[in-house]
Amino acid sequence: MPAGKGRKYCSATCRTLAWKARRASAAVALSQALGMSLEKARDVVDAAGMKELQRILTGLGLVYNTASRRWVVLVDQDVFVRQESI
Ligand SMILES: [Zn+2]
C-alpha cells in the first residue's frame, strides 16, 4: 500500500508487488487491445521494459490506474475499466 510522505511505497516488497501487478495487468490490456492471446501478450511484456510498455499502452489510449491496478481506457474524461480480472 502507498505510504509515507514523499514515498510511493512503504517497502521494497510492496514496490515489487505493485510492479508485478502493473506488468500482469499490462499483459491483459495488451491482449485485449491487440486481440492477441494472453500468452503472446505476456511474451511481449517480458521482452519489453516498463518504459516501452508504458509507451505502447499509452499509444493504445490506455492509462494505468494505481487504485484498481488496471490499465484503463480514457473516453471523454470518464474512466472505464476494461479488464474484469488480472
Ligand atoms: Zn505498501
Task: List the keywords.
15% strand; 3-stranded antiparallel β-sheet; 3 strands; 86 residues; alpha+beta
How would you describe what is shown here?
With 86 residues, this protein is of the alpha+beta class. It has one domain (12-81). Helix content is 50%, strand content 15%. It contains 3 helices and 3 strands; from the N terminus they run αααβββ. It has helices spanning 12-34, 38-47, 50-59, and strands at residues 62-65, 70-75, 78-80. It has a 3-stranded antiparallel sheet. A hairpin with a 4-residue loop joins strand 1 (62-65) and strand 2 (70-75). Helix 1 crosses helix 2 (38-47). The longest helix has 23 residues, at 12-34. It starts with 11 loop residues before the first helix and ends in a 6-residue tail after the last strand. The model has no long low-confidence stretch (mean pLDDT 83). Residues 1, 3, 9-11, 14 line the site of zinc ion.
Reconstruct the topology from this structure:
Elements lengths: L11 H23 L3 H10 L2 H10 L2 E4 L4 E6 L2 E3 L6
Antiparallel strand pairs: 1-2, 2-3
Helix pairs in contact: 1-2
The chain binds zinc ion.
